[in-house]
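Pasting two entries for a bug report.
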Amino acid sequence: MRGRDAPSPISQERGEPSAIGESRGAVQSPPLRGRSALTSALAKLAPAALAFALLLIAWELYARLGGIAPTVLPAPSRVLTQAWENRAALADNTLPTIRATLAGFACSLLAAFILSALVDFLPRLRRAMFPLLIASQTLPLVAIAPLVVLWFGFGLLPKILLVALVTFFPMIVALVEGYAATSTEISQMLAAMGAGRWRIFWLARLPSALPYFFAGLRISITYAVVGAIFAEYAGAAKGLGIYMLSAKNNFRPDLVLAAVAVSSALTLALFGLAVLVQHFAMPWERAGRDSKVEPSEGRP
């Protein structure tokens, strides 16, 4: 005897939807989940975009109606206009800054990974190195940049060194802390299966450190452009730092702010690139978030 809610054979032959089919169809399809993720991301960005727009409007009104001279506080519209009119000079000075930023950050990333691995394999090295690394972060960049330029010249090398000095410390600390957060049970299981120290590091300790590493990466990458600009202030032929210095000496705050806007855009682009790399480098994290969302979406 069939229950009252059971689908009849006739309805199944006619292709009519049953209660079971309807409950199965309630689960959200992948395209809908993709649109939902995009909508959620836009919703998260909306408050920041609104606050930024209100800030620009208030700045524009104050600069136009407050009787402030453009040589003191130019309006955002003037900054945008001057940035467009001087776009060739801005682009010409942006490329050396990008080159120094990417080269310095790549060196910093490689050095952080190598030294963090050495510190993980040799605990005594950590006790010897970390006080020196902490001391390196107490050096004021304004004071050390001219010395680095004096020692290594006006080429690309001092800029690479200064960017690496600024961005190195957060990444190595994050990696070392990530290695230490590895589950003891996983390491013991791999050791019982005959895995050596390097294989345990590659299969267990490095994946465990990835969330910590990307957190340190996002912090470091926001300092990279600033480090390159400081290095250019100390001595360079071209770059955003030189462009800002020249505009300041010519009493052109609109061009200074235009260069600041370009450097901010570079920083945001690098930060977004770091988030994108994390998104593809840690697919298990994305799968974990999807598994948490799907049960609630499948409820009638």
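Entry 2 (this is the one that rendered wrong in the viewer):
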Amino acid sequence: MKVTIKLPKPRNPLAVRARQRKAGSHKRSEPSRQVQKQQLARQRWDD
């Protein structure tokens, strides 16, 4: 009698990489901290 083991479906390697780098939508999010600091410095300079 031959025993066969059913293997799970192989995972998509691209999907795994996308999850690891926390991929998300391509729209811009709020400004980075560095940009916020620059804007704050400009406001202080103008005052």
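Dev reply: Rendering is fixed now. As a check, the viewer should reflect this: The mean pLDDT is 78.
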